[in-house]
Specification:
Number of domains: 3
Helix content: 55-70%
Oligomer: single chain
Largest sheet: 3 strands, antiparallel
Bound molecules: iron/sulfur cluster
Strand order of the largest sheet: 1-4-5
Structural class: mainly alpha
Order of helices and strands: HHHHHHHHHHHHHHEHEEHEEHH
Length: 360
């Protein structure tokens, strides 16, 4: 991506800050410390946006925001709330749980809408917010917004170079879709959130631990194995986001529904010199080669933009529009992604600032 002029970069950054500032005023109300914390965080997001546009490097600043948000999310929901409540009785709305309990979720939406109380409906329909995001930045949610994905990405960045080479997974790359179907079927049959109870390595709430000690031990074995293997150790060794790429039901769902997003990362085969660097750096194993040796991105692309930054031929971009009439929409995509990331993280990061400052 070419460096942007100072004027253009500053203009776009101020645009991001302006929208986030309005949201901050609306959501903070008369709570002045909270408003100041929200405005401070909005400034951080806008500054990172400025650096992206000005330096022409997307992934570095995106990753800073993404990983920092994930770290602060855990600080708020696992540390501060744990201290306040003893455990986490009020877990945030979890999009991974939503994906893995889709049928139950649809049912709850119907009940919420039928209740006629917009406040109840509003809380329960956080899911519609995620759907709205999917229809705008699509799979970009997995590399710009998801506070769980930031943990996986953080560990995948610890080693400067991969210690183990991860071979192109071929047809195994579709494994998460099969796993999602399995989870949905079992959840539907059992009427229980099976993924949350057995597979989730983040466990934002204590509610899913079984009371029976033997079952609880079995849950703990799976929990620690997935956390250690898929979120920490293999990402460190390979530089790939293993939990996000192979286990996360939300990632699998968004790889299908994200097709509705107008944005896609595409490789211009005329410009591509077939160096293979995009495939090497892609943390989501979302680049593959065709039978004729051409490189192409797949539905599992999370729009992290690492390949865009590294491509020596400037062959990769974020496009939208029907094929044939495609336009380069990188600037708009980045703008929207930062807005969504800033708005969602703005609902919990300022609280962390206030708690650290002793004001909460
Ligand atoms: S990094 Fe660029 S030039 Fe190299 S294979 Fe990928 S798209 Fe082609
Ligand atoms: S294809 Fe490029 S933008 Fe998509 S996930 Fe891989 S590195 Fe990121």
């Amino acid at each position: 991506m070419k460096n942007g002029s100072f004027r253009k970069s500053a203009g776009l950054a101020f645009g991001i800050l302006g929208v986030l500032a309005v949201l901050s005023f609306v959501s903070a109300g008369r709570d002045v410390p909270l408003l100041l914390a929200k405005l401070s965080w909005s400034t951080v997001v806008a500054f990172l946006g400025f650096r992206i546009y000005r330096d022409g490097v997307i992934s570095r600043y995106r990753a800073i925001l993404f990983i920092l948000t994930a770290f602060l999310f855990f600080l708020e929901f696992k540390f501060f709330r744990f201290i306040s409540f003893g455990n986490t009785p009020s877990a945030p709305y979890c999009h991974i749980a939503e994906a893995s309990t889709l049928s139950n979720f649809v049912h709850s939406q119907v009940l919420a809408i039928k209740s006629g109380d917009w406040r109840v409906w509003g809380v329960l329909t956080m899911g519609f917010l995620w759907l709205l995001i999917i229809f705008t930045i699509g799979q970009g949610i997995c590399s710009w917004v998801c506070f769980f994905g930031g943990i996986d990405e953080g560990f995948s960045k610890i080693a400067k170079r991969p210690i183990l080479k991860f071979k192109a997974p071929g047809r195994w790359r579709d494994l998460p879709i099969a796993f999602l179907i399995f989870i949905l079927v079992v959840t539907f049959l059992q009427g229980l959130p099976v993924f949350c109870s057995w597979f989730c390595p983040f466990k934002m709430t204590e509610a899913f631990w079984a009371a029976d000690p033997v079952t609880r031990k079995a849950q703990a074995v799976l929990f620690w194995s997935i956390l250690a293997g898929a979120v920490i150790i293999i990402p460190i060794l390979t530089g790939k986001r293993i939990f996000c790429s192979f286990i996360c039901p939300f990632g699998a769902l968004v790889s299908i529904s994200g097709k509705a997003s107008p944005y896609a990362v595409t490789i211009d085969k005329e410009k591509c010199s077939r160096c293979g660097k995009c495939m090497e750096v892609c943390p989501s194993l979302a680049v593959e080669t065709t039978a004729s040796g051409e490189y192409k991105t797949t539905n599992f692309c999370t729009r992290c933009s690492k390949c865009i930054d590294i491509c020596p031929s400037d062959a990769i971009s974020i496009f939208s529009g029907p094929s044939g009439a495609r336009i380069d929409t990188r600037d708009i995509f980045i703008f929207l992604s930062l807005l969504v990331a800033g708005a969602l993280s703005g609902s919990f990061v300022p609280n962390v600032f206030l708690r650290l400052a002793g004001l909460r």
